[in-house]
Amino acid sequence: MAASLLPPPDPQFVLRGTQSAVHALHFFGGAQGQGRPLLLSGSLSGLVHIWSLQTRRAVATLDGHGGQCVTWLQTLPQGHRLLSQGRDLKLRLWDLAEGRNAIVDSVPLESMGFCRSSVLAGGQERWMLAMPGRGNDEVQILEMPSKTSVCTLKPEADAKPGMPMCLELWQADSSPRPLLLAGYEDGSVALWDVSERKVCSRVACHTEPVMGFDFDSQKARGVSGSAEKALAVWSLDEQQALQVRGTHELTNPGIADVKIRPDRKILATAGWDHRVRVFHWWTMKPLAVLSFHSATVHCVAFATDGLLAAGSGDQRISIWSLYPIRSDASTPSLGHAEGREVGTQTLA
């Protein structure tokens, strides 16, 4: 007799109180590394909330973007510092140490696009920042905190990729040279050698703008989503050539964000159809469809302990514990995925 389908899992808990749509999420290690991580959220109203996952309440609210939508949040590894990007054309650097919550620096943006910035940590308090540039198709690279211009990455004359939509700075284990992955308006993903200021490779992944991607540098493999009904999986070979490995068709169009969990076992997508979808990262097998939200899911984020957060236009943040990270690799039942039963599995 066939096993009955299990219902979708429920959130572990829900955070309310942002007062507007949630457009950015980022987990932070927490004060003095004690207890559960803190969660940072950026809202349409321009506020950044710092949430305690123990009390499930906001412990601080940062107001630094003049009421304009916060689109990106990132903490820096050196000290309690936060970068926030807003539609007010400002990148703010916050000092969060000892409850200060103060803006200590600001970088002006020269593009009104939707592109989120990216950072690459260096040594001795220095770090690299990639952000949308002045030109429609440009990416600006700065050395921080000095704000020294490293270079401007502009596509070759015959390439017309449109605006950069998402960025990720990274370094290969085999080389200290900084590299940049950029997703563009024409649906392509390009790999830049920052030092050489040149495109190493470009691949067409989508027919619509790349809305979000994530890259697994250990597997040299990435995944991207767009306005269309498919995820694209692509890889990078030893000659720094990008190639599409396959696509995964979705039930509904529109992916706003994609994140791979830190242990590289699963990934989550934020959908225009109000759903979060969870996939096995290596096989792309659907594992769960999380249908809690009542409006577009704009962003997802994973904590190092495996917690998943999703932020939505319904002004709520859902927190999920799915396939917990365990040393024995065993996993609990999750319910159904895309109409199929999901039982106990091993995420190898």
UniProtKB/TrEMBL annotation:
This is Guanine nucleotide-binding protein subunit beta-like protein 1 isoform X2. Gene3D superfamilies: YVTN repeat-like/Quinoprotein amine dehydrogenase. It comes from the Eukaryota. Keywords: Repeat, WD repeat. InterPro entries: WD40/YVTN_repeat-like_dom_sf, WD40_PAC1, WD40_repeat_dom_sf, WD40_rpt. SMART domains: WD40. WD repeats lie at residues 203-244, 290-322. It comes from Neomonachus schauinslandi.
